[in-house]
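User: Here's a protein and a ligand (adenosine-5'-diphosphate). What would the complex look like?
Assistant: Let me lay out the input and then the predicted complex.
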Amino acid sequence: MTGSVHSDPGAFDSSTFESSDFPAEILEMHWARICSRLQVEVGEVEYRTWLKQISLGPVDGDEITLMLPTRFLRDWVRGQYGDRLSHLWSGEIPAIRRVELQVARAGTAQAAPAVAAAAPAADLPQVGADLGTAAAVPSIVEARNDLAAPLDPRYTFDSFVVGKPNEFAYACARRVAEKPSSVGFNPLFLYGGVGLGKTHLMHAIGSELVREGKVSVAYMSAEKFMYRFIAAIRSQSTMQFKEQLRSVDVLMIDDLQFLIGKDNTQEEFFHTFNALVDAGRQIVVSADKSPSDLSGLEDRLRTRLGCGMVADIHATTFELRISILESKALASGVSVPAKVLEFLAHKITTNVRELEGALNRLIAHANLFGRPVTLEATQEVLHDILKAHDRRVTIEEIQRKVSEHWNIRLTDMSSARRARAVARPRQVAMYLAKQLTSRSLPEIGRKFGNRDHTTVMHAVSRITELMERDNAFAEDVELLRRMLES
Ligand code: ADP
Ligand code: MG
């Protein structure tokens, strides 16, 4: 079946026009104009994703044929842009009143390849997995029958550096990779801030299971899940979509927070989720917050998400950052002095991805110029990154925020009072001052009522220790830190 868009097929006397009335160059010219309008109307991403795949076919009577490489793309473009395309064509050439969308079969002559060169497969988002038939042209768009996004082979358990902040999540992930669907671990819900290794761990689980070859695994972002779901609705293949989803042994959905406010997709996810868990399959989900904090997700979904194992990946510590840098530097084969690693770990604190990026840049630079990595070179090469990470938080700000948080007087930050209710917040403020500013211990001490630097040192180790022991307390401090950093 092909995709006629116009609703009034009989209205035109097709004998009046021949395809030859529109030489290819003329059609190409009009098409180029339509394309640039569409590009503006729908935005670059949408355009490249869907519309750039279109190539021109012949004109027959009042109908122009547009071709797409797969049925999936054809259906999507028809559903989303069919009316708009026929409208635009009529605007260009009034004699054209219908747009026919077809799947280009292998060997189909394409009228205007120069104008509508198909995008390389890499331009297609993961959404493009083909739900369709053999009509796809594999050379243009890789026909993917599998449901999932590919797994990044670099993200393995071996390449994941384990430390206090992520050891629990790591252990849970390993457990799921060894024994999917164990009681108590389904679903596995991984959460934490940006760039702390959620995606890495999910890929590691996937790769491990695939390597063992025991089970089928589908990994995709929640965003892709939504696109796939919408595409399935449009192409009336929701049954297939559901069957595909429900046939996997392990389903992993990354960045679930994306589904906030997307009620229909949430609904579908919820049903899929239930069906899989009931059938004894494993689900792994990641998000930037815990299930209970994901307000905007349906309650029943949040409840179910929290039913298995919930593992938090905490913000990195200095020690973990150092280990990560050491491991990546080692893998690169370039020798990076400890001083440089410490400098980076001190400066770039929030996000492992950025830390990694900075190190990679240094390494590339060293390789390119054949010069050893030094602290001076680092400061020069990473000038822009470091500037962005310069923390401008002041000790006064820290004191203010901390006092507000625990509802004590600001003056108690420098007072001699030793009651726990004021002493503890004061220690937290000292700890944060050490973490978030480049002030030395004596400088910090001075700002806290002229205390000695050993008092600050003691505060830092005391708070570190308490954070390790007391989760709720750690979260409080972490929250303060995030507030101060943003
Ligand atoms: P998230 O999904 O939580 O935003 P990612 O998993 O994408 O974060 O991690 C960002 C980058 O940092 C990736 O390149 C990942 O390999 C790396 N990374 C994060 N945590 C670790 C870790 N503990 N050990 C090694 N690499 C890590
Ligand atoms: Mg991620």
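Summary: Confidence is low (pLDDT under 50) at residues 1-20, 107-145.
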